[in-house]
Specification:
By secondary structure, the protein is an alpha/beta fold. Helices cover about 15% and strands about 40% of the residues. The chain is built from 2 helices and 8 strands. The chain has a 4-stranded mixed sheet, with helices on one face. The protein has a 4-stranded mixed sheet with strand order 5-8-7-6, covered by helices on one side. A hairpin with a 4-residue loop joins strand 2 and strand 3 (about 40-45). The chain is globular.
Amino acid sequence: MKYNSLIPELTVKDIDKTKEFYVKVLQFKVEYERFEDRFVFLSYEGNQMMFEQDNDNWSVGRLEYPYGRGVNFEMTVSDVESLYKRVLDYGIKPFRDLKVSHYRNGDETIVQKEFLIQDPDGYLLRFTD
Protein backbone atom coordinates (compact mmCIF):
# COMPACT_ATOMS: atom_id res chain seq x y z
CA MET A 1 0.00 0.00 0.00
CA LYS A 2 1.18 3.48 -0.84
CA TYR A 3 0.50 5.97 1.93
CA ASN A 4 -0.63 9.47 1.01
CA SER A 5 1.63 12.27 2.16
CA LEU A 6 -1.28 13.77 4.12
CA ILE A 7 -3.60 11.46 6.04
CA PRO A 8 -6.01 13.04 8.53
CA GLU A 9 -6.37 11.26 11.85
CA LEU A 10 -9.67 12.15 13.47
CA THR A 11 -10.69 11.69 17.07
CA VAL A 12 -14.11 10.06 17.43
CA LYS A 13 -16.49 9.32 20.28
CA ASP A 14 -17.24 5.68 19.35
CA ILE A 15 -14.81 3.86 17.04
CA ASP A 16 -17.26 1.03 16.36
CA LYS A 17 -19.98 3.43 15.23
CA THR A 18 -17.48 5.33 13.08
CA LYS A 19 -16.15 2.14 11.50
CA GLU A 20 -19.68 0.91 10.73
CA PHE A 21 -20.58 4.21 9.06
CA TYR A 22 -17.47 4.42 6.89
CA VAL A 23 -17.32 0.72 5.99
CA LYS A 24 -21.01 -0.19 5.70
CA VAL A 25 -22.47 3.03 4.32
CA LEU A 26 -19.59 4.61 2.41
CA GLN A 27 -17.81 1.33 1.59
CA PHE A 28 -14.37 2.32 2.84
CA LYS A 29 -11.92 -0.55 3.23
CA VAL A 30 -10.25 -1.39 6.53
CA GLU A 31 -6.51 -1.31 5.86
CA TYR A 32 -5.56 -2.13 9.44
CA GLU A 33 -6.69 -1.74 13.03
CA ARG A 34 -5.15 -1.54 16.44
CA PHE A 35 -7.94 -2.77 18.67
CA GLU A 36 -6.01 -2.03 21.85
CA ASP A 37 -5.77 1.65 20.82
CA ARG A 38 -9.34 1.83 19.46
CA PHE A 39 -7.76 2.86 16.12
CA VAL A 40 -8.62 2.10 12.48
CA PHE A 41 -7.02 3.08 9.17
CA LEU A 42 -9.52 3.23 6.27
CA SER A 43 -9.30 3.92 2.55
CA TYR A 44 -11.62 4.49 -0.39
CA GLU A 45 -10.36 4.94 -3.94
CA GLY A 46 -7.09 6.56 -2.89
CA ASN A 47 -8.63 8.56 -0.04
CA GLN A 48 -7.11 7.63 3.31
CA MET A 49 -8.28 8.47 6.82
CA MET A 50 -7.36 7.37 10.32
CA PHE A 51 -9.72 7.34 13.31
CA GLU A 52 -9.01 6.91 16.99
CA GLN A 53 -11.52 6.83 19.81
CA ASP A 54 -11.06 9.77 22.18
CA ASN A 55 -8.41 8.83 24.75
CA ASP A 56 -6.83 12.22 25.48
CA ASN A 57 -3.63 11.25 23.59
CA TRP A 58 -3.98 13.96 20.95
CA SER A 59 -6.56 16.32 22.47
CA VAL A 60 -5.62 19.98 22.55
CA GLY A 61 -8.97 21.00 23.98
CA ARG A 62 -12.42 19.81 24.90
CA LEU A 63 -14.23 18.03 22.07
CA GLU A 64 -17.85 18.96 21.48
CA TYR A 65 -20.18 17.78 18.76
CA PRO A 66 -19.87 18.54 15.89
CA TYR A 67 -16.18 17.73 15.80
CA GLY A 68 -14.01 19.38 13.15
CA ARG A 69 -15.79 22.71 12.99
CA GLY A 70 -14.43 24.85 10.23
CA VAL A 71 -13.02 22.07 8.09
CA ASN A 72 -14.38 19.76 5.43
CA PHE A 73 -12.62 16.81 3.88
CA GLU A 74 -12.94 16.75 0.10
CA MET A 75 -12.62 13.31 -1.46
CA THR A 76 -12.67 12.59 -5.18
CA VAL A 77 -14.54 9.39 -6.04
CA SER A 78 -15.16 7.61 -9.34
CA ASP A 79 -18.98 7.60 -9.10
CA VAL A 80 -20.28 10.39 -6.92
CA GLU A 81 -23.89 9.82 -8.01
CA SER A 82 -23.90 6.17 -6.88
CA LEU A 83 -22.32 7.11 -3.57
CA TYR A 84 -24.94 9.84 -3.11
CA LYS A 85 -27.72 7.33 -3.80
CA ARG A 86 -26.23 4.88 -1.28
CA VAL A 87 -26.11 7.62 1.35
CA LEU A 88 -29.77 8.46 0.70
CA ASP A 89 -30.73 4.76 0.76
CA TYR A 90 -29.31 4.57 4.30
CA GLY A 91 -31.56 7.46 5.32
CA ILE A 92 -28.73 9.91 5.80
CA LYS A 93 -29.77 13.51 5.28
CA PRO A 94 -27.12 15.33 3.27
CA PHE A 95 -25.60 18.49 4.69
CA ARG A 96 -25.68 19.70 1.07
CA ASP A 97 -27.51 17.85 -1.70
CA LEU A 98 -25.77 16.65 -4.85
CA LYS A 99 -25.24 19.57 -7.20
CA VAL A 100 -22.91 20.87 -9.86
CA SER A 101 -20.56 23.52 -8.51
CA HIS A 102 -18.28 25.95 -10.34
CA TYR A 103 -15.05 27.13 -8.74
CA ARG A 104 -12.77 29.73 -10.26
CA ASN A 105 -9.11 28.78 -10.48
CA GLY A 106 -7.25 31.71 -12.02
CA ASP A 107 -8.60 32.04 -15.56
CA GLU A 108 -10.17 28.58 -15.50
CA THR A 109 -13.38 27.26 -13.99
CA ILE A 110 -13.45 23.91 -12.25
CA VAL A 111 -16.80 22.16 -12.60
CA GLN A 112 -17.61 19.25 -10.34
CA LYS A 113 -20.57 17.33 -8.97
CA GLU A 114 -20.47 17.25 -5.21
CA PHE A 115 -22.44 16.59 -2.06
CA LEU A 116 -21.67 16.93 1.62
CA ILE A 117 -22.61 14.80 4.61
CA GLN A 118 -21.64 14.67 8.26
CA ASP A 119 -20.25 11.51 9.79
CA PRO A 120 -21.45 10.30 13.23
CA ASP A 121 -19.13 12.78 14.98
CA GLY A 122 -20.16 15.71 12.81
CA TYR A 123 -17.06 15.80 10.61
CA LEU A 124 -18.04 17.32 7.26
CA LEU A 125 -17.26 15.12 4.24
CA ARG A 126 -17.42 16.49 0.69
CA PHE A 127 -17.51 13.93 -2.11
CA THR A 128 -16.77 15.07 -5.66
CA ASP A 129 -16.30 13.56 -9.10
